Amino acid sequence: MSQHRHPGAPGRAGAVPALPDLPEATVARLPEYLRALHNLADSGHETVSSEGLSAAAGVNSAKLRKDLSHLGSYGTRGVGYDVALLIEQIEYVLGLTQRRAVALVGVGNLGHALAGYDGFASRGFRIAALLDADPSRVGEEINGLVVRHVDELPVIAVQESIAIGVIATPAAAAQRVADQLVAVGVTSILNFAPCVLSVPEGVDVRKVDLAIELQILSFHEHRKASLTALPGGLAATETQEAIGT
Amino acid sequence: MSQHRHPGAPGRAGAVPALPDLPEATVARLPEYLRALHNLADSGHETVSSEGLSAAAGVNSAKLRKDLSHLGSYGTRGVGYDVALLIEQIEYVLGLTQRRAVALVGVGNLGHALAGYDGFASRGFRIAALLDADPSRVGEEINGLVVRHVDELPVIAVQESIAIGVIATPAAAAQRVADQLVAVGVTSILNFAPCVLSVPEGVDVRKVDLAIELQILSFHEHRKASLTALPGGLAATETQEAIGT
DNA sequence: TAGATTGTTAATCGATTAACAATC
DNA sequence: TAGATTGTTAATCGATTAACAATC
User: DNA-binding region at which residues (chains A, B) (predicted)?
Assistant: First the structure.
């Protein structure tokens, strides 16, 4: 089935093309492929095999081909994938053809770092607003942006067409901020606060909890230690694990 | 099977007890349960049902019970789980009975924030060393710790019994740092640099990529937009998704 | 054509979930 | 005992993987 669905090409009836309904696991890996492809493009590669790309992205090649097959057929048998075309296609699917505006709420320790993080700008996003509930923080300038009060969110959301909200507040404040984001129409939230957010249907929440990541590693440390200490002394066999996203 | 395996109790033959070989998905949720349990304990609950705990942790109750069943039987039918006992048990399994020492490499923008992140200290970890390859950064004091040169790692790793390395360098430097960590015996790495690390068997790597999280949200934004724009106008139905770790 | 590599198949594996028997 | 809730079963679902036919 070699039906190229070019970026922006009409699906049927000339409407906005319906995106393929990708498996979540695939969606989570596409950004990884994209990063690897950009590296390849920067180093002058015009074409790459599934073997080559999968190695660069740290997955196995069957998985990569399966993932890409969900997007349609963009490879050439016997040759590989066109790097530029695949970049274009993945960026289209991920919705990165438009630069999405991000509102970052909470400019404490972590928020400060996020506000200055280059990776956002270079990979499809624009931090359009910094907000905080603490009046003493309002007015501070970080990276060329002035911190504004979170109550200004309704105005700012419209002015800046905020698409994604990032919560970097303490846990105690996070639910209230989430409610405020939802109230102004934000349907995608990245939550750094260590708590569960409750949001209405149709709102996507992703969570990053730094301490949890360490605790998962701690489990594996503990496990490895208990294995090596075993009577039989199994040592560190079969313990490898490069864990995905 | 109500075989309580108490924290620190011998498995067989009086050796260190072999940890249960938990499913990865379960391991990733245990920290979430632990956080919820601490909240419950703080608010005076002595007992909690699977229904109550699962709600607090944002998962369904069948999944919670299944997860906990892997640890052994720590609940009481008709009653629920003893909060304190369950905390103790999960902390034991996660290896949090000892406070693990963390070396943080790269004190740029993000590294600075991580160095000051309270969540680490309060949830079982001790940032024992701050390191950087840039001599102009060495000597700087952050949160009571002096930044040292990454080449001092061999000495520091031993002195501080470093268990986990956190990489917060630019992508270009990350592999070299990973090699250095591995060389001094670190077998658990949390990588914030946007690149794939290659490490020998027995070394666990977890990755946090902030831009990838936004790109995944971007996909869902794009998808929701394409659905509402559809001829039939399916609107935002069945798009809910509170994505786990 | 011969060699290379994709896209797909089908088997396997692991995770989720509802339902309920066991039991406090 | 009656009510509540766990721990487990079994069915289902989704993700991974090796193998290979299709095809450049």
Answer: 32-71
